[in-house]
Amino acid sequence: MSSSRVKAIEQRDRSLARVRSEGAALDVSELPSFGFSHRSLMWWGTAAMIAIEGTVFALGVVSYFYLRSHSTTWPMGCPAPDAGWGTLNTAILLASLWPNQWTKSAAERLDLKVVRIGLVVCLLFSVAFLVVRALEFTSLHCRWDDSAYGSIVWMLIGLHTTHLLTDALDSAVLTALMFTEPTEGRRFVDVSESAVYWYFVVLTWLPLYAVIYLAPRSL
C-alpha cells in the first residue's frame, strides 16, 4: 500500500475519532422556527388548559343536578330564567364559528391581511356576546345568594363569562400585536391556538345553555 494511501486512511480515522469524541453536529438552520397543531408547544398547552377547564365545567353541571336531586322544588322560590337573551347569545356564538375558522385557516397560510381582518371580526363577536351576557344576568330572576339554585346558576354562567372575558382580552392584545409588531411566525401560531380555544368556549356553552334554561322547565 502506498504511503499516500496510508496517510489518507490515518486522516480518515482521526476525523472519525474526533466526531465520536465531540459528538456529531447537525445543521438545523433550514428548519422552520415554528409549527402548527401538535407540532407546537402552544397547542399542547392549550389542550391541557381545555382539559382542566372542561373538567371544572363538568363538575359544575354535576353539582347542579346534585342540588336538584335534594330539592322538592326547582327552581327554588323563583321562576325559571327567561331564555330570550341566552338564546340570542347562543346564536351569536354559533355565528362566530365561521369567522373563527376563517381566521384560523388564514393564520396557517401566514396570510397577514386576512388574519388582521378576521381578528377584528372575531373581537366584535366577543364584544357583542359580552354586551348581551350583561343583559342575560338580568333575566335569571335570582341572586347568587338567594338559594342553592341561585348560587349554582350564577356560578355556571359566571364561569363561562370569565372565559369569555379572558378570551376577549387575549384577542384584543393579539389583534394589537398583529397590527403593530413586526410579524413573526409564532404570532400566527398564537392566532391559530386562540381560535382553538374559542371553539372550546362555544362548545361548552351549549350544554350550559341546556342546563340553565331548559332543565328548570323539564325537571
Structure description:
With 219 residues, this protein is an all-alpha fold. The chain has a single domain, classed as Four Helix Bundle (Hemerythrin (Met), subunit A), CATH 1.20.120.80. It has six helices and no strands. The longest helix is centred in the C-terminal third of the chain and has 34 residues. The protein starts with a helix and ends with a helix. The relative contact order is 0.15. The mean pLDDT is 83.
CATH superfamily: Cytochrome c oxidase, subunit III, four-helix bundle
Task: Identify the overall geometry.
Answer: elongated
Please tell me the overall pLDDT: 83
**Structural class by secondary-structure content:** mainly alpha
Number of strands: 0
List the helices and strands and how they pair.
Elements: H1 3-22, H2 41-69, H3 84-108, H4 112-137, H5 148-180, H6 185-218
Jot down its keywords.
mainly alpha, Four Helix Bundle (Hemerythrin (Met), subunit A), elongated
